[in-house]
Amino acid sequence: MKSLTQKTYHAKAADIKADWYVVNAEGQTLGRLATVVATKLIGKDKPTYSHHLVGGDVVVVINAAKVKVTGKKLTDKIYYSHSGYPGGIKEIALKDLLVKDPTAVIRHAVAGMLPKNKLQALMLKNLKIYAGPEHNNAAQQPKELQLDKKGAK
User: Is there a contact between 33 and 129 (Cβ–Cβ < 8 Å)?
Assistant: First the structure.
């Protein structure tokens, strides 16, 4: 008699094909943009998703300097870093970080939404962020990822 058990599909590294997407961050809310980008990097929107592989897509974010935040976050949101030495804490407000390095704001938001494991650094390598409208990845022919005010369409 034939067994009636089902087999669970697990993708192999050779089965995974990464697509390229370009996202325009101009006028987009930071958190909603970061959730869409994180989902694409993880690959949870693909039928070949496997939690033990980097199966996501490559995402190019342009116009990072024109991202929008709501409420009083521009002045009240503080990013902290610590050197590990006594008195080695540094802080910078979101408003100042947008002027100094607008790509760091989006990278920090997306990194916080990725899984905290060894794959996080590999997924972040698939995130390319540019402060202006120009990017260096035209040769990969990225598809435009359309976003509305609430996130992905």
Answer: no
Give the distance, in angstroms, between the CA of residue 63 and the centroid of all CA atoms in the same chain: 14
Distance, in Å, from the CA atom of 91 to the CA atom of 93, rounded to the nearest integer, reads: 7
To 10 degrees, what angle do helices 30-42 and 102-111 make?
Answer: 60
- The Cα–Cα gap between 43 and 48 comes to 8
Residue from 82, 66, 68, 73 nearest 130 by CA: 66
pTM recorded for the entire structure: 0.90
The 10s digit of each residue's pLDDT in 80-104 is 999 999 999 999 999 999 999 999 9
Helix (H, G, I), strand (E, B) or coil at 93: strand
- Exposed / middle / buried, residue 140 (Cβ in 10 Å: 0-12, 13-18, 19+): middle
